[in-house]
Each structure stands twice: as C-alpha cells, then as structure tokens.
Amino acid sequence: MAQTTARPLTKYDYWELPEAGPRYQLINGDLFMAPAPNRFHQDISRTIQFEIMKYLEAEPVGILYDAPFDVVLTDINVFQPDLAFFSEQRRHFLTDKGAEGAPDLVVEIRRSTQNVAASRVRAFRSKDLQAILIALGHGLTTSRRGFAH
Question: 5: which of 41, 50, 53, 71 is 20 to 30 A away, CA to CA?
C-alpha cells in the first residue's frame, strides 16, 4: 500500500488561519500552538521592551514590535518572537501582515524546557541579526549572529 506524505504548510496556509483563537507559529512547515505566556515572561518582556523604547526615543534608529507579530523567514517558517527590532535599513521588510525578512534583533524568552523557542532562535541564526534568548531561571545568552548554546 502506498503511503502519502502531507506537504509542508506554507506562509499562505498560515495566513488563512483565523485571527481569533490560539496563536500558532509555522516551523519547517509544521504548525505549533503557542500558549499564552505566564506573568514572569510578561514582566521580563515588558521590562526589556521599556528599556529599548527609552533608547529609541532618544535615538530613533528603528522600530520595535512585540508578540504577536509575524516574522516570515521562508515560505515554511513564520515566527512570532517576543520582541523584534527593525533598523531603518531593514524597515523595507515590514508589511501589513508583519515582516518578510529577518529583524536586526530578536528577543526570545522561554522556560528552560521549552524547545520551540530555541528552535526559533536557531532558525534566525542563518540570518544577519543579533538574537537574545532568555531562559527563565537560567540567565541571558547572546551572540553576534544568533543563539550560542
């Protein structure tokens, strides 16, 4: 008996999902549900966002977005980083749907057991940007061109 393999989902399939309801991300053609973040996650995200926004008020060098905000890297990878910064040089990536191209800076906050966030940061690794991964209870890891293990 012949087996059929489902084709990977694309950004076009992703864009057909209803806006209301669970949040999803598209990773290598598969949908992953993103549950609501806990309050510690929100506190950390808000603090980082506040500090970046203060800097951007003094130095308007780009724009910052917080989740949910779609960042399309490829036809089969659509992510919602916790924070995404686009410099003026990358502003052309911004669309009505979110962004089609890598931001300059991505911030991902995750629990130490949450592998999906690490996968998202690794996907950004091949792009020319700074990625910051914050593992709750495990500190901050940053590298020049992506997540450093």
Answer: 71
